[in-house]
Fold this sequence. Notes:
The chain has one helix at residues 122-129, and strands at 23-26, 39-48, 62-67, 93-98, 113-119, 141-142. The protein is mostly beta strands and 157 residues long.
Amino acid sequence: MSAWGKGPSAECGRNPGYRVSITVTLGAHNVSKNERSQQKVHVVHWVIHPKYSKKHHVNDIMLLKLKPRAKLTKEVSYILLPSHNERVGPGTKCKVAGWGRTSRTGKKSSVLMEVNLKVQRNKVCEKYFKNGYLPQSMVCVGDDDRKKSTWKVSAPH
């Protein structure tokens, strides 16, 4: 739906028999403020990834059906997703964005942060993250100059 809508993870929808009301905020730049660009939309149905695992932190994603439909604007637009079994190859440029932590010990950001990175060979992330990298459900991204990342870490050289 939105390239960077603030929404639930798969964990939110995993309580059978528990009534849940979910509203997503689309078009947000600063999630701690009410901005004119924001659209608050109700989720009427969701589908959790069939291989979601809270224990192993994999496939933490849901498809959401919104009502009413989101209004397409400069801040809210569609994004292209790969087809079934299509892999994004090494060297492909991509954007990573979010409101979370920018370091292991830092505070969460309320302002949308974005960085341009390149898809790396799987062996790069397997080396750095050992058993924590799952190529079948993750994309390995980085910066050739080691100056940019999704968050600040001390990785071995």
